[in-house]
Design a protein that fits this description.
This protein has 16 helices and 21 strands. It has 554 residues and is an alpha/beta fold. The strands form five sheets. A seven-stranded mixed β-sheet has the order 1-7-6-5-4-2-3, with helices on both faces. A four-stranded antiparallel β-sheet has the order 8-9-11-10, covered by helices on one side. The longest helix has 25 residues. The structure holds pyridoxal-5'-phosphate (PLP). The site of pyridoxal-5'-phosphate has 13 residues, from α4.
Length: 554
Amino acid sequence: MTWLMNLMRPDLRSLAAYRSARKEADGFAPDIGVDANEFPWPPFGSSSVQGKMNRYPEPQPAALLGRLAALWNIAPDHILVGRGSDEGIDVLIRMFCRAGIDQILICPPTYGMYKVAATVQGAEVLRVPLRADGNLDVAAILTDCTPQTKLIFIPSPSAPMGKLMLREDIVSLCRARAEQSLIVVDEAYIEFTDYPEGMLPELPNIPNLVILRTLSKAHALAGERIGTVIAAPELIQNLLKILAPYPLTQSSIRAALDVLSPSGLIQNAERRRVLVAERERMARLLLQSPLIVSVFPSVANFLLTQTVDSAAVMAQLRRSGILARDRNSEIANTVRFSIGTPKENNLVLQALGVSAEVLDSPPSLRLLSAHRGTKETTIDVTVNLDAPNFLQIDTGIGFFDHMLAQLASHGGFGLALTCKGDLHIDPHHSIEDCALALGEALSAALGDKRGAGRFGFTTPLDEALAQVTIDLSGRPSFVFTGSFPVATVGEMPSEMVPHFFQSLANALTASFHLAVQGENTHHMIEAAFKATGRALRQAFRREGQEIPSTKGVL
Ligand SMILES: *Cc1c(COP(=O)(O)O)cnc(C)c1O
């Protein structure tokens, strides 16, 4: 792509990147590294226990790139990871803009860092305001562009309004500025929208499209400073030459791998659903404040409000110990509110004079993700007792997966469970440990609000019949009656069925009675899982704010 090289600062086109010994060793993983003048012992302090802090991190961690690439369905060589999207903005401007000559273009009101980074680099900032409807003024942008306009920054959803930019506007801008400008679409909040794929599907077709993504907002990692530039591999390779040689720390890499693990992804996705529901609730209730005139429609995790007097609003919030974002400098008398937990949101509303009576206090979230690792199995499990909207099960044992799916769907809870176990030996450890992990997760999600009631269900399935009685009593016990005519169904030994429920009862600290009769083993097992699901559904049901309970907490 010679046009890309032509866009770059001429003095950087042939820059040779810094090369560490490990880069020069080209994939060789030494047993002893005496190449980087590191300290050979770990540092003092408990946070160093997980090790490696005395060693330089991987410049672009392969495992992290791999997870991001899988998440976004692109090849890893399209991704640069650095210290937040802010670093991405910075290296793009440094790579393309000569001081005193080149320009970036922004569309105010917009995110503040584009201008700061451009000014530091000595690049001029062209400004073409968004239209009154909040969309891009494509015609005006194209009129104002010059041959020196190297980068056009477009946050989508926009900041501080939270409006998704029109795909066709971005595409036509890219096409009209082909080989002349890079169009940088900053998707910091895209995961909160109904279009989490954002502009990624256009990437293969549009060479001058660059996307910024961050783990700061939707992935809960603002404190670890991780952001990405996503673009054609040739651009990524060139940006890497001017990026700091080791931008991410060992601990930030570990944190990123955790949030991008199966459980981490589901937990955050579920929490985002809560934030989106809270955003809609806030948008409605903020209007009840005498200080708020209107609320800008938003698809992100914040709401921009038009207030009577932004300084007065900020002062009033401050008296309640609350800090919001005064956006008066961008749009007169506007204040931006990030969406917090339901409890925090209620406090914000009350501080703004919204009567406590109208605050429907939303129930706490019974969502739990856990990781369980032993020598035999590694399990990631997530349950959501209030939303059966996800079901993702992979234990490597087909029939067992099918049974767990029955348990969750009849139980009315969301379940994601992956198990990597020693199936080359037999399914015993996997089935047992899945029961323990699931029971522990359900128990923890219930918290101390577990009901004391007794729940039962009887499920017929053709000739088979299963009867279940569960008491979430806090005292584990298990009684099983029945015998299975055949020894295995699929790869699952029948004798593991009572063992599964026994382990589940232990981990749930429930007293659990199961009786199964019938002629077909498959039917009998399936009936047992369905009946257990149905009984759990009763036990987990929340009536208003309460869990059905006779005695309160046990
Ligand atoms: C928060 C934000 C960023 C910065 O993200 P980091 O990855 O934390 O640096 C970039 N762009 C927009 C529009 C933002 O709101």
